[in-house]
Amino acid sequence: MFRVAWVGGRPAPIAGAKELGIDVVLVHQEGQYEPAILAHCERVVHAPLADGDAIVDVLRPLHAERPFDRIMTTSEPFGISTGHAVDAFGLPGVGEAVARALKDKSRTRELLEKHDVSPVRYRVVRGVEETVAFLTEIGGPIVVKPIDGAASRHILPVADSVDARRAWVRLGDVGIGTALAEEFLPGPVVSVESFSFGGRHVPVGYSEYQVNERFVEWAVTTPSRLAQPYLSELRELTVRLLDVVGLPEGPSHSEFVLTSDGPRVLESHARLGGHALPHLVRRAYGPDFARMMLTVPLGIEQLPAEPPEPVGGASIRFFTPRPGRVASIDIDPGLDAVVRRTPLGESTDVYLPYLDELRDAEVGVAIAKNPGDVVQPLLTLSDCSSGYVIASGRDATEAEERCATVAAQVRFTIEGST
Q1: Exposure winner among 46, 89, 307, 418, fewest CB in 10 A?
Q2: 214: how many CB neighbours lie within 10 A of its CB?
Q3: pLDDT of the chain along its 418 residues, tens only?
Q4: How distant is the alpha carbon of residue 395 from its chain centre?
């Protein structure tokens, strides 16, 4: 019997662990996980998830009684604290140094530059003056963003000194005094979902996004039609990227811009991708990354020898009603989908609720708002909280069309709207 400590996750992808012969100790914060996940756990222990020493403290007595084989997370904010625990117990996996190399986007750029991989001009900036100086040096638009940001938060395009001042007002409002400035890379964004073990990296799934003016990704489709002409380049670049940062094992989510000069690295993460990407990859390509996180490092299953070909298409589309208080939500009676709704009077802090329940639905709908709830402006990925449609299809286009059709049959009316 194997034993794994799993840190955070909403939801944590540990369903089916017991059937695989894996005991899971979930490390989490009270009220931030779905109660249904408890059926898959040996036990739950509570700790502040950003505190590596606190995680070590709650796990130490359990490790002494019966050692853990792995300590894992797929949560972006807690990769470094989890890596600290991995190192503290001397376990294989993603340690603190690798987690920092990916979390700190300036460190990622530094490593890529050192190894001459995917050249992108960048600079760490502290304030308007340094930002304008870099903008002048580049001679074109730039993007300013937090060095350790996630979920499309505070990504700010800057084309002139006025934009630079506005950007730093907004960054200052959220307490950010140091940021990463990069040359703006024109072109669509695609992502590559990969899995690694023993230092070998296998790119599996390719996805494309629809974004708003704030770079918030509100729809994703797999496999990417845009990436198709660049597959060989993307595979090679993904492997080189993961070698440079030293990823030893587990899933990774890497984003690229398809520029006129070929793919360029945007950023990468040692975790499962957001936007339900593991589910999209499973529907479109077959491999189940959530299952592989548990089985491949423990030797229960083998890492695929070669990247698989797609077997279909998959897409997810978040509901994006206009901001305001919800007056009503109407569903067409002929809606051809499995529907799950947050009960009236309840709220959920769980990202992508009901995703596991909709796992086998050809088309699934999750409605996370009720009349009286408030829809926030779509400024970050966390604002995609009204619900979503997820669908499979014979190919990417059919899956995307199914999502759009079903989403149009769920209508949010906002107070004061006509």
Answers
A1: 418
A2: 16
A3: 899 999 987 655 687 899 999 999 999 998 777 777 888 899 999 999 999 999 999 999 999 999 999 999 988 889 999 999 999 999 999 999 999 999 999 999 999 999 999 999 999 999 999 999 999 999 989 999 999 866 557 889 999 999 999 999 999 998 999 999 999 999 999 999 999 999 899 999 999 999 887 778 899 999 999 999 999 999 999 999 999 999 999 999 999 999 999 999 999 999 999 889 999 999 999 999 989 999 999 999 999 999 999 999 999 999 999 999 999 999 999 899 999 999 987 766 667 889 888 999 999 999 999 999 999 998 888 888 999 999 999 999 999 999 999 999 999 999 986 5
A4: 23
Q: Are 336 and 402 in contact (CB under 8 A)?
A: no
For residue 234, which amino acid is it? L
Chain-centroid distance of CA 313 in Å reads: 19
Residues in the chain, total: 418
SS (H, E, C) the chain: CEEEEEECCCCCCCCCCHHHCEEEEEEECCCCCCHHHHHHCCEEEECCCCCHHHHHHHHHHHHHHCCCCEEEECCHHHHHHHHHHHHHCCCCCCCHHHHHHHHCHHHHHHHHHHCCCCCCCEEEECCHHHHHHHHHHHCCCEEEEECCCCCCCCCEEECCHHHHHHHHHHHHHCCCCCEEEEECCCCCEEEEEEEEECCEEEEEEEEEEEECCCCCEEEEEECCCCCHHHHHHHHHHHHHHHHHHCCCCEEEEEEEEEECCEEEEEEEECCCCCCCHHHHHHHHHCCCHHHHHHHCCCCCCCCCCCCCCCCCEEEEEECCCCCEEEEEEEECCCCCCEEEECCCCCCCCCCCCCCCCCCCCCEEEEECCCCCCEECCCCCHHHCCCEEEEEEECCHHHHHHHHHHHHCCEEEEECCCC
pTM of the model as a whole: 0.92
